[in-house]
């Protein structure tokens, strides 16, 4: 009972810690916004901050209020008091707290109290959550009344018992909303200024009470949870249960002996065969020390069921996200360097059957947030896109041709279908347009938003899908602004020309994609190939020069799309003028590579390393807080706003080890500390570090060369 009560309190505090850590990474606390915030004139930003704080406060009943502390402005901002300016002494107290503690810490004597709330328990977290450019702190105040009520409700003995929390110095943190009872005062006097034992007895008011203590430590806190239960209430059910247990045990023992005597010979032969089969495989860890054959079989069977169910659940949870991430990479061109057979093989691993298929792609975009009839407003873009994806998935679930629906997280949704190659193009186009029309009408009707869809050209291979996707996205700009919903057909909108072109568009697209991804060697090689193909196709030197100028303009456009200024690569030097002034055309690709492509790719790699380190630092902070929960690479990648592949590669690059190895080492070190410093059972320790007991024993033995029980005995 004590363990469950204390674990519930720790779970509530840990939930506040995890939620606070996630809040500090919210874009609303971006340093560039907060440091430039004018508390007197930026009314809109302050109002948005109030709304966000109110939403955060209402997520947990234990949270009384949330302050945003701005050190530079010496001010506290919350949705109840507004903006409160601190005097010099108050500001120094808060800065001293932040300086003397970690980025995340608790205080149970918070110095700055407004009014007579008595709420002195608070959690402070540095802002921003990335630990860079710290400009203040997020202060989460715990409602002492609600916290005390929760502690009091854990008293199993009702009004006769007691339940409260003590500080290390013996003072009471809280005793609930009621006044302090005589029993609680007697307990505090007994425990004050003495070492707290785990259990003791106390005589008070003519009764004997069993007192249990449970210490738990949070960052910067050291509390003891105390419960007192009368011995009379404890022993009442035990007397009846003990008699019942003795009677049932006696009957069961007699029956077991009788059955064993009658059936042992006939049962032992099949049991021996089963044990022989189990011995050929790895036995369950908990069955290694069991001598009874039936127990060995039962333990192994339960172990295999747990492992199978665990793996099946994990696969089912992560499979939809993995499939969507793969389609996102395929459509955006990140898999362009794979062969067609490799892409098909990977898709077959996701249970997609793609034999002799042709593909149709549609890109849908939703708009109209400013209209009064819409259920969404500005700021709800992500929610609207998520709702549109769900509607389209439900609408197209009946079609076996559907491969998947992709959310591009920019108010656009992709829908990919695969048809047999035997289907005529006219029939394929009409069927696909009918499906797109149904989806457009349904999304527009339910969400009350404007929907524009573009249907890409039919493709015969998966490698061509990224070009169809980019063309479809660009075609969205041709929508009719006077129409609410519309569908644009690429073949009708942009008809193919009959005249042969002399410009190598395909090589240009591949080179621009390599430059966009920051791949130095591939970009330089494709630039040379582009130049060679341009010479082969062109009739004279002027066409070569014009083609290279066009290629340079496309490169500048790609660099601008990546968020960089191409003029900053060579300040004071115009690359266009340099190309025009070059007399030897063979120097044109050299100038492009050395003046534009190589500096840009090197700058991207440098910025990417910084970004990856910040992203990995955020994931590490999350792991150290939530290592006991069900962690996965996909979940951490989703929290960090990236793909599992990118996070895995960045984690290996920054930390020097894989994600799984780091999480395993972190959990094993925590388990080792619990084995040395606590008397918790092995199963309880396994759950605290995020493992099932059977799997925990196997991993621990692999890490330290011995079982957890042997480790504890050796360190005793």
Automatic annotation (TrEMBL):
Name the domain of life this protein comes from: Bacteria
Q: Which InterPro entries match?
A: CdaR_GGDEF (IPR041522), Homeodomain-like_sf (IPR009057), HTH_AraC (IPR018060), HTH_AraC-typ_CS (IPR018062)
Specify whether Nucleotide-binding is a keyword of the entry: no
Q: Which Gene3D superfamilies match?
A: Homeodomain-like
Going by the UniProt record, its keywords in alphabetical order are: DNA-binding, Membrane, Transcription, Transcription regulation, Transmembrane, Transmembrane helix
Example GO molecular function: DNA-binding transcription factor activity
Q: Name one Pfam family in it.
A: HTH_18
Where does the HTH araC/xylS-type domain lie?
Answer: 617-714
The answer to whether UniProt assigns keyword Glycoprotein to this entry is no
Q: Which residues are listed as membrane-spanning?
A: 244-263
Q: What is this protein called?
A: HTH araC/xylS-type domain-containing protein
């Amino acid at each position: 009972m004590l363990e469950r009560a204390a674990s519930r309190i720790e779970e509530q505090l840990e939930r506040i810690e995890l939620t606070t850590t996630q809040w500090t990474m919210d874009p609303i606390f971006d340093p560039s916004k907060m440091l430039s915030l004018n508390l007197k004139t930026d009314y809109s930003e302050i109002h948005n901050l109030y709304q966000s704080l109110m939403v955060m406060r209402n997520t947990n009943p234990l949270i009384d209020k949330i302050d945003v502390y701005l050190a530079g402005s010496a001010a506290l901002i919350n949705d109840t008091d507004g903006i409160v300016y601190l005097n010099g002494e108050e500001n120094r107290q808060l800065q001293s707290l932040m300086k003397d503690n970690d980025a995340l810490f608790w205080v149970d004597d918070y110095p700055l109290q407004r009014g007579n709330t008595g709420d002195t328990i608070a959690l402070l977290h540095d802002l921003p959550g990335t630990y860079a450019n710290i400009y203040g702190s997020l202060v989460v105040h715990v409602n002492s009344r609600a916290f005390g009520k929760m502690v009091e409700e854990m008293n199993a003995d009702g009004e006769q018992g007691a339940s409260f929390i003590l500080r290390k110095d013996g003072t009471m943190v809280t005793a609930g909303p009621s006044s302090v009872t005589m029993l609680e005062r007697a307990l505090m006097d007994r425990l004050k200024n003495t070492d707290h034992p785990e259990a003791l007895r106390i005589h008070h008011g003519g009764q004997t009470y069993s007192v249990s203590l449970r210490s738990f430590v949070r960052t910067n806190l050291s509390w003891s949870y105390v419960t007192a239960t009368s011995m009379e209430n404890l022993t009442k059910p035990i007397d009846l249960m003990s008699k019942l247990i003795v009677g049932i045990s006696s009957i069961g023992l007699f029956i077991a002996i009788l059955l064993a005597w009658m059936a042992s010979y006939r049962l032992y032969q099949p049991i021996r065969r089963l044990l022989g089969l189990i011995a050929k495989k790895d036995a369950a860890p908990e069955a290694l020390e069991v001598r009874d054959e039936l127990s060995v079989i039962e333990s192994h069977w339960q172990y295999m069921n747990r492992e199978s169910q665990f793996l099946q659940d994990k696969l089912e949870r992560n499979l939809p996200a993995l499939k969507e991430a793969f389609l996102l990479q395929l459509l955006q061109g990140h898999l362009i360097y794979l062969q067609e057979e490799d892409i098909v093989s990977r898709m077959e691993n996701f249970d997609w059957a793609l034999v002799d298929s042709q593909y149709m792609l549609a890109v849908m975009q939703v708009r109209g947030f400013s209209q009064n009839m819409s259920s969404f407003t500005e700021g709800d873009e992500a929610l609207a896109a998520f709702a549109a994806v769900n509607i389209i998935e439900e609408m197209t679930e009946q079609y076996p041709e559907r491969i998947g629906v992709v959310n591009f997280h920019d108010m656009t949704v992709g829908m990919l279908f695969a048809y047999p190659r035997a289907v005529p193009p006219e029939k394929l186009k009409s069927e696909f347009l009918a499906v797109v029309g149904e989806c457009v009408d349904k999304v527009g009707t339910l969400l009350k938003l404007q929907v524009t869809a573009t249907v890409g050209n039919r493709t015969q291979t998966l490698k061509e899908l990224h070009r169809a996707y980019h063309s479809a996205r660009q075609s969205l700009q041709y929508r009719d602004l006077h129409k609410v919903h519309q569908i644009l057909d690429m073949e009708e909108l942009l008809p193919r020309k009959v005249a042969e072109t002399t410009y190598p568009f395909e090589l240009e697209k591949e080179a621009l994609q390599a430059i966009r991804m920051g791949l130095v060697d591939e970009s330089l090689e494709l630039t040379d190939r582009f130049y060679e193909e341009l010479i082969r196709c062109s009739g004279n030197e002027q066409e070569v020069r014009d083609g290279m100028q066009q290629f340079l303009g496309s490169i500048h456009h790609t660099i601008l799309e990546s968020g960089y200024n191409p003029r900053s690569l060579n300040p004071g030097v115009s690359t266009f003028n340099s190309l025009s002034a070059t007399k030897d055309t063979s120097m044109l690709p050299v100038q492009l590579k050395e003046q534009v492509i190589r500096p840009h790719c090197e700058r991207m790699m440098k910025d990417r390393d910084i970004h990856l380190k910040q992203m990995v630092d955020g994931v590490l902070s999350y792991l150290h807080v939530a290592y006991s929960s069900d962690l996965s690479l996909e979940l951490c990648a989703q929290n960090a706003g990236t793909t599992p592949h990118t996070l895995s590669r960045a984690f290996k690059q920054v930390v020097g080890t894989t994600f799984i190895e780091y999480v395993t080492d972190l959990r094993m070190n925590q388990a080792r500390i619990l084995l040395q410093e606590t008397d918790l059972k092995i199963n309880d320790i396994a759950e605290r570090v995020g493992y099932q007991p059977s799997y925990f024993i196997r991993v621990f033995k692999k890490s330290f060369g011995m079982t957890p029980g042997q480790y504890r005995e050796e360190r005793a």
